[in-house]
Amino acid sequence: MAKTACTVPITQIILDEDIYPREGVSLKRVSMFAENMRDGFEIDPIEVQIHPDYIEKYRILDGAHRWHAYKEIGATEIPVHIITLDGLDPLLYAAKKAIGPPPVIRRRGKKHCPSGV
């Protein structure tokens, strides 16, 4: 899987709900991102792939809240990572991004040290 960083016009980015597994966009979260952007904080680029059905368009794999926030502040171009999935299903990729990494599970109780330590 390859990743290319660049800036693209916001009008070329599409939220394809067929592959974007979120149940909606939180306006509170969008506002938080927009406020941080206005205050000059650096925000991670959104992840997109070249849209298979539209010429010169990209579809969001991860970052719909950030995309909406860029629209809210009137940005005309935004930083993206263009992801080449190399055959990986875009829905599966987007779902894994939505779920995040698995939690770290630690045992409660005393740590057992090896003998002699």
What does this structure look like?
- The structure is a single chain.
- Helix 1 crosses helix 2.
- The chain contains 3 helices and 5 strands, in the order E-E-H-E-E-H-E-H.
- It is of the alpha/beta class and 117 residues long.
- Strand 3 and strand 4 form a beta hairpin.
- It has a 5-stranded mixed β-sheet.
- The protein has a single domain, classed as Conserved hypothetical protein from pyrococcus furiosus pfu- 392566-001, ParB domain (Alpha-Beta Complex).
Task: Write a brief structural summary.
This protein is 26% helix and 24% strand. The chain is α/β, with parallel strands linked by helices and 117 residues long.
Q: Any low-confidence stretches, pLDDT <50, length ≥5?
A: 103-114
Structural class: alpha/beta
- CATH architecture title: Alpha-Beta Complex
Principal-axes geometry comes out as: globular
What is the straight-line distance between the termini?
A: 44 Å
Strand numbers in spatial order across the main sheet: 1-5-3-4-2
Mean pLDDT: 80
Backbone CA Rg? 19 Å
Number of helices: 3
CATH class annotation: Alpha Beta
Helix content: 25-40%
Biggest beta-sheet profile: 5 strands, mixed
Q: Quick one: how many beta strands?
A: 5
CATH superfamily annotation: Conserved hypothetical protein from pyrococcus furiosus pfu- 392566-001, ParB domain
